[in-house]
Every structure is written in C-alpha cells, then in structure tokens.
Amino acid sequence: MKLSQRALEIQASPIRKLMPHAVAAKQRGTKVFHLNIGQPDIPTPHQMIEAYHSFSEKVLAYGPSQGLDVYRDGLVQYYARHNIPLQENQIIVTQAGSEAVTFAMMVVAEAGDEIIVPEPFYTNYNGFATMAGITIRPLLTVAEDGFQLPPNEAIEALIGPKTKAIMICNPGNPTGTVYTKEDIFRLGELAKRHGLYVISDEVYREFIYEGLSHTSMLQVPGLEEHAIVVDSVSKRYSACGARIGCIVSRNKELMAATLKFAQARLCPPTVDQLASLACVPLADDFFKPLIAEYQARRDLAYDALMKIPGMVCVKPQGAFYILVKLPVDDCEKFIIWMLDEFNIDNETVMGAPGEGFYATPGLGKNEMRLAYVLNEDELARAMSVFARGFEAYKNL
Amino acid sequence: MKLSQRALEIQASPIRKLMPHAVAAKQRGTKVFHLNIGQPDIPTPHQMIEAYHSFSEKVLAYGPSQGLDVYRDGLVQYYARHNIPLQENQIIVTQAGSEAVTFAMMVVAEAGDEIIVPEPFYTNYNGFATMAGITIRPLLTVAEDGFQLPPNEAIEALIGPKTKAIMICNPGNPTGTVYTKEDIFRLGELAKRHGLYVISDEVYREFIYEGLSHTSMLQVPGLEEHAIVVDSVSKRYSACGARIGCIVSRNKELMAATLKFAQARLCPPTVDQLASLACVPLADDFFKPLIAEYQARRDLAYDALMKIPGMVCVKPQGAFYILVKLPVDDCEKFIIWMLDEFNIDNETVMGAPGEGFYATPGLGKNEMRLAYVLNEDELARAMSVFARGFEAYKNL
User: Fold this and answer.
1) Looking at CB atoms within 10 Å, which of A192, A215, A297, B223 has the fewest?
2) Is A174 helix (H, G, I), strand (E, B) or coil?
3) Tens digit of pLDDT for each residue in A78-132?
4) CA distances from residue A172 to A139, A149, A375, B54 in whole angstroms, order as listed
C-alpha cells in the first residue's frame, strides 16, 4: 500500500526522533538531561492549575471556532500591555502555535507556492509546509552576523512569482536572535513593496535579555494588510501541554478565511483556554524574575560552551536556545553516541541535531541546538557532562 | 492582498456559519433550540470533570506526540471491549476527530488525489479536503435505500487512477445510517481488490438503536493494511470541548508516517487526555441508559416530523441526527427566517442547511439536518416550534 508523497517526504522531528535512544538510556538507569526540547522546568503558574481545578460546567461543550470570547478579550488586554492595540475579531484562538502556523501558511499560500524563511529556523515549519504542499525558500543567516536579517538584495533575490510570504521567528528559535526595530521595519517595507505577507512567530516575545526590546510585526505602521502574528502560551507560561495559541491579523479578509479553517476543526479545547485566560493578568512581577533566571542560564550555558575548544556559537539575545557548531562531521551521530554509549555517574545529555533546522541540504550537519531550560544547578551539571562527553567522543 | 485558492474555496461550516443569526435572535431575547449542532446536553461524566480537578503536575509539560502512554493503554482496553484487539502502537492520540481525519486524508492522498465518500456526509470532510488539496468524489446514497451503501458497480464507477481511499462515517452523520456487517465486509473486499485505503469515522460507535450492532472496519479480516479508523471522545462522553480523538491502524508504515505529522504539531493537550482516560472504564452501566435516552429522542423527533405534511425522512438507526427533506426551495432561507423573523413565545429553532453535507452541486438544498441532542421535554417543545414555524413559512 502506497502512502502519499507528503507522508514520505515529511521529516521526522529532529527534536523528537531520537527519543527512543533517550528512552533506552533511561531504561538502563541513566539520567538524561533533556536539552533537546524547549520544555521549560519553570512551574506552571498556580493560577493556571487552579483554573483547571475550578472548571464547573455540567457539559464540556464545543466553544466558538474563533475561541472563547472571554479569552479573546483577555488576549486583547495582553497585547495592549505590549503596545499592540487589537480588537477581539483580529484574534483567532488556535491549538497551540502549531495550528496558528498551519493556518497562516495555508491561508496565504497554495500548494506549489513558496514562503521565504530565514534559516536556520524552527524545524517544524518544514513539517507544516510539507503537509500544505508549500515550498520553504531558505534565506541563509549566519553566526558571523549574529543570525540577523541579511540585506534587502539577498531577500529580494529569493522573491519570485510563487512567493507569497516571508516568515520570521522573533526572538529566534534556534538562534536566539532578536531582530532590531530597524530590521523589522525594513522587512515590513520590503513586504509592502513586493505585495507579500509577513508571518511573524512571536511565541518568545518576553524572552529577551540585557534590556533589549521586542518589536512586533504588528507594530509596523501601514502593514495592517500584510502582518500575521502566530503566538502561543506554551513557553510564556510554561504550559506546553495546554496547546493554546492564536493567530493575529488586522487583515479582515484574511481573518474571515482563517475562521473557515477554524470552523472545519470546530474549536480549540475549552478548559485549556480558561486555564490560559487565568495567566493573562501575569505581568512584570511574573516575567522579570523569570527572564533574569533565563539570562543566568544563558550565561551559564554559553560560558560552558566557550570553554570547550572548537565550539562556535553566538551569545543568544532571546528565546532559550543556543545553536552551536561542533568540530565533528555529524552531530546526530554524536548525540546518539551520548545516549547509547556515554554516561558519567549514570548521567548524560541530549541535544537536537542542527540539520533539521535548515532547509538547504547539507547545512547544519555539524551543529546542534541546546535548550537552556533547566535550573542552574542541573544545567551546570548537564554542561559538565556534555563537555566531558564531547572530550571522550573526540578521542574515540 | 490575495489569499490562497484554498482559503477562497473552503466552505464556511454550514453548521456554524448561521450562528450570527442565532446570536442576534438571542440578543433580542429569543431562546434558540440548537438542533443545528451535535452538541449533546448530556452531563459530562463526573469522572472526567474530577480528572481536570485532580491535575497536580508542577509543570504542564509537552506529552509524547503519539499521546500519553497511559491513555493509549486505556484506549487499547476500550477497543478490546468492542472486540477490536489492538496494540498501543496502533493508536495515535489526536486533537479530536478533526485532526484524525486530517492526518488520515493527508497520509493516504497527495494534493490532486481523490477520496470517495458516500454523500450526504459530515460537512467538515469538505474543509479538511480543501485544506489538503484533495478532491472528494461523492458516492450518492439516497433516503429510499436508507442511505445504505450502493452496489459495488456504483462504487467502482468512481474509482480512477487518482483514487486513494474510500471514507465512510458509521454510524452516519448526517444520515443516522448504520452499515450492515455484510456491507462493511463487502467494502473491505472491494478496497482490497482495488488497493485502496478505507477510512472509517466511527465516533458514534455506541449510538446504535433497536439492538442493531456495529461492525468496525478494524474487524474485517485481512484488511490490516487498508483500514484506518478515526475516533473521538466528543460525542461518546459528551466532551466536545476536550478535543481528544485518535487515529487507529494496524498498517505499520502508515502509522510511522502519521507519527511524523503528529510530531510536527508536538502533542495533543495533556490534561484533556487525562480527563479522557478517566472515561475509559465507562461501559454498559453508562451507555445503556444513554442509548435508551437517545432512542427515545429519536422516536420523538421522527414522529414529530412525520406529522408535518410534506416532510421526507428516514428513521435513523444510529448517531443523533435526522436528515429531513422539506417541501421548500432553499432550506437555508427557511433556517435564517426562523432565526430572524419567527418565534413562538420567544422561542425558535435552528437547524443546519443540508447543502453543505453534499459535494454534488445542487443536492441537499431542500434538506436540513436536525440533531436530537436535547432532553425530551425541550425536544418536544423544539419540534412543536419547528412545526409551527414551518406552517407559518409555508403560508408566507
């Protein structure tokens, strides 16, 4: 029995496909430090857990396809705090950021169309594009420039008749890059000039270090018809298991069409929306210590990597990932070896192979992504195990 | 700014698109009996609500892409009770039946491919197909035959080089038809002979009346490579807002490819899976009175319709819908009129226009679907309002 071409072509998640090796290691009694996945260890806010506990409807019924009104109201308040004035009907609640990305891609691009994405990029964009029959045209960014946006000429060189959108992730996964206001505005101008949409994945909006500030694509004047933001509660509130996100745009026709996609799958989960609503009031009191904690983790991880001879990486400005280039041929082999063959005092480390974060064949093979999502003690231990593992691997 | 062709083509949900008329009616103080949507009034089992209340993890973390092991274990037990022996790795938990249908369509068919579906069919299959670029080839079934499967010749006449699967809904939405064991086996043989997949939507498995029994596509011998079941907790446990379903197949390659789709969106919601797990032990004690209740509602709705001159419908054998043919040109107009213009003692009724349940242009325009999801008192009242509304409409 033949499967569809997209089923054959879709990549296994590089973040998750090596999990069987981790499971086997655990079965042998080895503790695995999971730096492969952006699963924070930060406790989910008690307000959110309490919201699950206080659900008291008799019938757990369908909600509106666009999300619960009360939650969309809450999101309007959330964005207003970030100086992004919105109305309720400019927001559709989705099943996490994943569905928001899928909807955004499908509403702007047909099978056979192209979307330009600076690479390296969040690996699952590949999966969503394959499912939708869309081609990602990678726009190479490099560590030497801090993975910042290339000049307009490089972007324009990729624009063709099938190009429908440019998609960015800001702050960036896996790069940790925060785009400057100038570059966001420049990208907006370029999109307007070429009649393209800009899809901006801003799920790490709050995770910005050293006092840098975030510019949303929704803050570019005159870009109302072009700008689409995808968002999620997963990282913001350490609520990856809630699967609540949203898609935001001021383009009325686009939102009307997106609602039709949303209607087909009926609605996002009800209780998880109420739980997400409980987090809306969380502001600086919650985020300031959280960001300080992540900044300390970033420093720890970065400093530890810098002490290992041959490692190349950029100090991230945001999100909670470091993309590191190793002096090896194939990082995936190294990661598997760490899980299958290596441990110190029954501890080992798992990273995510870099290749999956690129669309250009061959790139990223000697890179890996580490997520600094553990507390400082655990992370220090993990980085020490990583360093000693790499030392041993090099000497094989 | 242009939208994609699929964004322009995807139909607004006929079940949901008239909601603004219902909202307006409610704002005028009119009570609307919602027979348009399969939202049961049955209380969600207390076990499920309690599971939300007892979630006690510190971090609401990502789960496995294939679903929580403990829940997949539970599903194995659930299917075993229905004489469907399965292993855990033959089940992937999805974001409700909707995602299961999307995955099933995408894993078997490429953009441009075709899937044969007996019509009338669950309207949102259209939306999922449009998003995936797949063409639904409708296989007409008619009230005169109780909407049962046509003979093989009629099915085979639709099979071409692009046909990848036949998709059924059993018991049927919107028809209420329960396919016979003979027909399920016949369809299985036909699929084998032509090398096609059979996707079987069995979300109404328990909702079968008058002692009829259900035959799952997973029970056809020798169909292991062909059979795919999509399922959901929504109707079964009156938990439409939980958004938990699953896709089931014994075809290893197909499940491996489906897992890659599942990995792209990371995981289904965690707490909702635990809540669904709490329902797994529910067996005859729970379902027998529930089915008796629905059978009584069916009888009430059917008898009420039969008393209205000119109504044509088949007594449903399962699910909780009646598709009724009205002596009017355009049922959608009638439904809108009922919401906009009509009420008795400030009460009116909303149905779902039949046209959206057909892929063949022009069919279903004089039909509507009623969901008998209200208790007998409410339903009796609703049917009386419906009858008097129709009487008034006819005499306009």
Assistant:
1) A192
2) coil
3) 999 999 999 999 999 999 999 999 999 999 999 999 999 999 999 999 999 999 9
4) 14, 11, 21, 36
Which CATH architecture is the domain A46-277 placed in?
A: 3-Layer(aba) Sandwich (3.40)
Rounded to whole angstroms, the Cα distance separating B39 from B140 reads 27
**SS3 string of B311-347?**
CEECCCCECCEEEEECCCCCHHHHHHHHHHCCCECCE
Of A46, A38, A42, nearest in space to A375 by CA: A42
- Nearest of A282, A308, A301 to residue A388 by alpha carbon: A308
CB contact set of B216 (below 8 Å; sequence gap of 6+): B82, B84, B184, B200, B202, B205, B229
Tell me the count of A-B CB pairs closer than 8 A: 258
**Is A263–B127 a contact, with Cβ atoms under 8 angstroms apart?**
yes
**Contact between chains at A44 and B58 (C-beta distance less than 8 A):** yes
Q: Which amino acid is residue B391, in one-letter code? A: E
- Domain limits, chain A: 5-43+286-394, 46-277
Select from B394, B305, B381, B307 the least CA-distant residue to B345.
B381
Rg of the Cα atoms in chain B: 21
Contact between A263 and B133 using a beta-carbon 8 Å cutoff: no
Instruction: Please state, in angstroms and rounded to a whole number, the distance separating the CA atoms of residues A103 and B138.
Output: 26
Write out pLDDT tens, residues B134-159: 999 999 999 989 999 999 999 999 99
Q: How far, in Å, CA of B396 to CA of B388, rounded?
A: 12
Q: pLDDT tens digits, chain B, 396 residues: what are they?
A: 899 999 999 988 878 789 899 999 999 999 999 999 988 999 999 999 999 999 999 999 999 999 999 999 999 999 999 999 999 999 999 999 999 999 999 999 999 999 999 999 999 999 999 999 999 999 999 998 999 999 999 999 999 999 999 999 999 999 999 999 999 999 999 999 999 999 999 999 999 999 899 999 999 999 999 999 999 999 999 999 999 999 999 999 999 999 999 999 999 999 999 999 999 999 999 999 999 999 999 999 999 999 999 999 999 999 999 999 999 999 999 999 999 999 999 999 999 999 999 999 999 999 999 999 999 999 999 999 999 999 999 999
Quote the DSSP letter at residue B45.
Answer: P
Distance from CA of A348 to the nearest CA of B (A): 21
Q: Which of B37, B111, B258 sits opposite A62 (nearest CB)?
A: B37
* Closest-CA residue of chain B to A38: B62
Helix (H, G, I), strand (E, B) or coil at A267: coil
d(CA B372, CA B294): 8
- The nearest CA of chain A is from the CA of B352 a distance in Å of 14
Full strand arrangement of the beta sheet holding A245-249: A91-94, A245-249, A227-232, A197-201, A163-169, A114-119, A135-140
What is the tens place of the pLDDT at every residue in B203-262?
999 999 998 999 999 999 999 999 999 999 999 999 999 999 999 999 999 999 999 999
- Residue burial A154-174, b: 16+ Cβ < 10 Å; e: rest: ebeebbeeebbbbbbbbbbbb
E-assigned strands of B150-251? 163-169, 197-201, 227-232, 244-249
- Cβ contacts of B42 on chain A, cutoff 8 Å: 59
Note the CATH number of domain A5-43+286-394.
Answer: 3.90.1150.10
Q: Output the six-digit token pair for A311.
A: 């490692």
3-class secondary-structure state, position B198: strand
- Measured CA to CA, the distance from residue A380 to residue A199 in angstroms comes to 36
Residue whose tokens read 């935001």: A248
Query: Residue B229, Cα to own-chain centre: how many angstroms?
Result: 13
What is d(CA A132, CA B266) in angstroms, rounded to the nearest whole number?
A: 17
